[in-house]
Design goal:
A hairpin with a 3-residue loop joins strand 2 and strand 3. The longest helix is centred in the C-terminal third of the chain and has 24 residues. This protein is α/β, with parallel strands linked by helices and 191 residues long. It has one domain: Rossmann fold. It contains 6 helices and 7 strands; from the N terminus they run E-H-E-E-E-H-E-E-H-E-H-H-H. Strands 2-3-4-1-5-7-6 form a 7-stranded mixed β-sheet, sandwiched between helices.
């Protein structure tokens, strides 16, 4: 049995006004993972809602920062320090404009690509080498500002497949923890 602890962070914005936004894809995935772990989120002093449990036989802390997206780094660094999790076992689940809607991609490290939540996390951790599970939301139509696009709710057409796509992203997180990055990429990038 694996005793190493993982930190899985879903990105989003707090409060009901943002609940259905594309930018809250990370929160949606973490809610599914919480159900699979059989627990409920509790308030943690790191400014995050936290659930300690098991995913696919792996010990994991699931976390949803209570800060706004652009300030996610403080809570993530606080969780890293509190639970003593090395950066190579931190997984961040987030929305991704540069991936078609519903596609899931996994990677380690890289830049923020204009994602302010990732920028904040990389700055606060002093490291970009954490794992990412990227939930595709696609590019905005026409000349819509990407910042406005991610703060809009998923469209009615997108909502038809949203639950399934969120489940697939949750599957990808579990595969990443159980099988490693390369195996999870091989399984989910082919979809």
């Amino acid at each position: 049995m694996d005793t190493e602890l993982w930190l899985v962070v879903g990105l989003g914005n707090p409060g009901p006004a943002y609940a259905g936004n594309r930018h809250n894809a990370g929160f949606l995935v973490l809610d599914v993972l919480a159900g699979r772990a059989g627990g409920r989120f509790k308030t943690h002093r790191s400014r995050a809602d936290v659930l300690e449990g098991r995913l696919n036989g792996r010990r994991a802390v699931l976390a949803k920062p209570r800060s706004f997206m652009n300030d996610s780094g403080g809570p993530v660094a606080g969780l890293r320090d509190f639970f003593k999790v090395p950066v190579e076992r931190i997984v961040v689940v987030h929305d991704e404009l540069d991936i078609p809607y519903g596609a899931v991609r996994l990677k380690r490290g890289g830049g923020a690509g204009g994602h302010n939540g990732l920028r904040s996390i990389s700055r606060s951790l002093g490291d970009q080498d954490y794992l990412r599970v990227r939930f595709g939301v696609g590019r905005p139509p026409g000349r819509m500002d990407p910042a406005a696009y991610v703060l809009k709710d998923f469209s009615s057409a997108e909502r038809k497949d949203l639950d399934l796509n969120v489940e697939v992203a949750a599957d990808a997180v579990e595969a990443l923890l159980a099988d490693g990055l390369e195996a999870a990429q091989n399984a989910f990038h082919a979809r």
